[in-house]
Amino acid sequence: MSRIAPLDPPYAADVQQHFDRITRGKPPLVLFRMMAAHPRAWEKFRGGSLLDRGPLPLREREIVIDRTCALNQCEYEWGVHVTAFSAAAGLSEQQVDATVRGEADADCWSPAEQAMIAAVDALHARATLSDTEYAALSAHYDDDQVLEIILLCGFYRTVSYLANALALPLEATAARFPK
Questions:
Q1: Which DSSP state fits 26?
Q2: Please, what sign has the CA dihedral across residues 138, 140, 143, 144?
């Protein structure tokens, strides 16, 4: 049970519209329902979120999100993203597992993906990139994409804080960390 209660249906019309836009007809996640129960927090969450497509292809976006959530031990959000997006992102089972247990230079990743995962790992560990890490990342991604990678790491670290600290129950249909 979540430490802060989520909204229960029926939802206010404006909240339902946000849920419909975000979840595209599927039931809203516990995370969204919990945030929406607190209007200021919900507004800030949506305003600062990166729920749109952005400048990264889906595959790279999901690798960043999955790796960030895994590094933060956030099975809740990792599982939601793996279930919802890994197939569309073209992630193999080996790659999904590698977001949790693999090294940045694992053979299952392309050189660009290796540089990106190394950057995610560095941001998680030190909240910065060395000149070498930045050069490797920027060799494969343009400025808008580099900014998006950094922003995704920060946003999904915050999402991980929320899900973990508030003990959100795992979504019934979401993937679980590999054993």
A1: S
A2: negative
